[in-house]
Amino acid sequence: MADKKTMLTVDGLKRLEDELQELKVVRRKDVAAKIKEARAQGDLSENAEYDAAKEEQADIEARIGLIEKMLRNVEIIDEDDLDKDIVSVGSKVTVLDVEFDEEIEYLIVGSTEADPAGGRISNESPLGMALLDKKCGDSISVDAPDGSIAYKIIKIA
Predict the structure, then answer these.
(1) Which residues of 130-140 are buried (b: 16+ CB within 10 A; e: fewer)?
(2) Closest of 21, 15, 19, 6 to residue 77, by C-alpha
(3) pLDDT for 66-83, tens place per residue?
(4) Which of 32, 40, 88, 115 has a 20 to 30 Å separation from 138 between CA atoms?
C-alpha cells in the first residue's frame, strides 16, 4: 500500500525540516548525555532517570521516523498556482456563519499543519471537506455535535 501524501505549504515544510534538524542535532545529543549520566549512577534496574531518558530517546526517534516518512511523501502546496475561483488546499477562505452572522477566515491546509484555533483547518476535517471545490457565494452545511452549522462562502484568496 502506498504511503499517504503529506500536503504542506512552503512554510509548513520549513517548520517540519527545522523540527527534524532540532531533533537530530540537539535533542539526540541531550538525551544521550542524560543516558550517560544515568548510567554513571550505577544499578540500572532501579534507576528512574535512566528509564525516563530511554523513554525520551524512544519518543525522539519515533518522531524523527514519522517526520522523515512525511517528507518522503510530501506534496507542496504552491499558493501562486491556486485557482482563486474555487476552494482548494492552500486557499484562504472567508465564510459567514449564518446563525451568528459572523465572518470567519480559514486557511485550508493538509492535516499535518492543521491548527483550528489558529484558523488553519485540515482538508480532511468536516468543514474543510465541505468547503473544497466550492465557489464564492456557495452555501454549505456541516454536521457538528450540536447540530448542523450553515456557512456561506464570502471570499476565496
Answers:
(1) bbbebeeebeb
(2) 6
(3) 999 999 999 998 877 788
(4) 115
Phi and psi torsions of 29, nearest 5°? -65, -40
Bridge partners of 152, per DSSP, are 96, 139
In this structure, what C-alpha cell is assigned to residue 52?
525516563
Q: Cell numbers 456563519 label which residue?
A: 97
Q: Which helix (H) or strand (E) holds 56?
A: helix 48-72
CA distances from 143 to 98, 107, 110, 130, 151 (A): 14, 20, 20, 10, 11
Q: To which H or E segment does residue 150 belong?
A: strand 147-156
pLDDT number for residue 2: 60
- Nine cell digits for residue 33: 548525555
